[in-house]
Amino acid sequence: MTIFHRAIPIFVLAGILFLAVPATSHGPAEHKEGTHADHEVAMKSQHERMANFKEAAEMLADAIIHNAPKLAHDGAEKLDRSLDGHEKDMPHKNRARVKEFHRLYVELGKRTGNLKAAIKADDLPRSAVAYGRILEICAACHRKFRD
Ligand code: HEC
Question: What value does the mean pLDDT take over residues 87-98?
Fold first, then answer.
């Protein structure tokens, strides 16, 4: 009887430890902000932005390869417009680094400005370099923030 009584708290303690270990391994967990609906809307516009980026990047690649200034101009304009409203985007992972995430969009905007200047000067080789500098930012953000 006495052994039985002492055994129970030990089992309880073991049980608590067992449960506590996997619970703490989740760490401080993600802090979700805003409602689920807000999140859905923001994610939808972020997906659309990426689809537009991709289309613009393809237009630009074609334009540079085929020496087509009009298409290059349209691609650069599309890229520029696609950046509108990026302030509401949110990375799916590394959320604590959201400032860095938005800095990459701002840098993308600057490099798009350089590309537009090269296209305006009708300098496709320089445009090709400016385009490469843009892809650098796409790749940097995907490496850090895409899941
Ligand atoms: C500031 C960060 C950031 C930049 C810059 C960025 N992307 Fe993305 N991209 C993402 C994230 C995050 C995803 C993952 C899915 C999502 O949120 O749409 C993604 C996904 C994508 C996808 C997959 C489609 C999808 O919706 O999942 C494509 C295509 C894409 N990006 C193209 C581009 C191109 C082209 C550029 C450069 C012109 C670019 N991205 C620049 C963050 C970025």
Answer: 90
Phi-psi region of 35 (alpha: psi -120 to 50; beta: other; left: phi over 0): beta
Q: Please report, for residues 38, 40, 121, 124, the alpha-carbon distance to residue 34 in angstroms, rounded to integers and kept in the order given.
A: 6, 10, 45, 45
Q: Is the CB of 104 under 6 A from ligand 1?
A: yes
Question: In whole angstroms, what is the distance from residue 131 CA to residue 67 CA?
Answer: 14
Please give the distance, rounded to the nearest whole angstrom, from the Cα atom of residue 108 to the centre of ligand 1: 12
- Give yes or no for a contact between 48 and 89, defined as CB atoms under 8 angstroms apart: no
Query: Could you tell me the pTM of the whole model?
Result: 0.79
For ligand 1, whether the C-beta of 115 sits within 6 Å is: no
Taken in order of first residue, the domains within the chain and their CATH numbers are 39-145 (1.20.120.10)
pLDDT in tens, 16-58: 333 343 433 333 444 445 678 877 887 888 999 999 999 999 9
User: What tens digit of pLDDT does each residue of 107-132 get?
Assistant: 999 999 999 999 999 999 999 999 99
Instruction: With beta carbons less than 8 A apart as the criterion, state whether 143 and 103 touch.
Output: no
42 pocket-lining for ligand 1 (C-beta < 6 Å): no
Cβ 133 vs Cβ 109: under 8 Å: no
